[in-house]
Amino acid sequence: MIVSRVIFGLLMLGAFIGSFSWSYANPATQQVLKAPSATTVVALPKKQTFIQKVKGFFVSAAEAVVNKPSKGLLIVLAIFIPWLAVGLATDWEFKHVLINILLGLFTCLGGIIHAIIIVNKYS
Predict the structure, then answer these.
(1) Alpha-carbon distance 108 to 52, whole Å?
(2) Cβ–Cβ < 8 Å for 115, 82
(3) pLDDT at res. 85
(4) How far apart are CA 101 and CA 110, in angstroms?
(5) Which among 16, 56, 67, 77 would be 20 to 30 A from 99, CA to CA?
(6) Residue by residue, what is the 3-state secondary structure of 13-65?
């Protein structure tokens, strides 16, 4: 359980660090727009504060929870928490989740294999 929490924390930290976009500091990315009156308007990208970036990260993380998770995350979940991966992949179809819970109770490896098969089939 602790290992899965550490892996989840590392995944979230990687997504947090990867969400920063430093392209606003590059002047080559600024767009020049021509207005109808032949005056030049330069649209400068907005600089985000650290608080806005953190807020945007948590909003995108919440949207990711509501939407279907990525296949890579489901594979990691299939190894550590197989029934959760099956539930998320199949939108909690009772038959698949029950089969995976029973396989996980009787044979741990069987639950993991079943979860990986279901994740590959539904993702």
Answers:
(1) 43
(2) yes
(3) 93
(4) 10
(5) 67
(6) HHHHHHCCCCHHHCHHHCEEEECCCCCEEEECCCCCCHHHHHHHHHHHHHHHH
Amino acid identity for residue 106 in this structure:
F
Which of the residue ranges 24-33, 67-76, 85-94 has the most confident prediction, judged by mean pLDDT? 85-94
Half-sphere exposure of 2 (CA within 13 A, CB side): 0
* pLDDT computed for residue 24 by the predictor: 42
Residues 56, 21: Cα–Cα separation, whole Å: 12
Q: What is the pTM of this model?
A: 0.49
| CB-based contact 46:29 (threshold 8 Å) | no
Tokens read off for 120: 């590959």
Q: What is the rounded distance in angstroms from the CA atom of residue 93 to the CA atom of residue 103?
A: 16
Beta carbons of 29 and 23 less than 8 angstroms apart: yes
Distance (Å, whole) CA 85 – CA 88: 5
The pair of three-digit structure tokens given for residue 23, joined into one six-digit string: 């392209």
For residues 120 and 112, give the distance between their C-alpha atoms in angstroms, rounded to a whole number: 12
Q: pLDDT tens-digit profile of 10-58?
A: 666 555 555 544 444 445 555 544 445 555 555 656 777 887 887 777 7
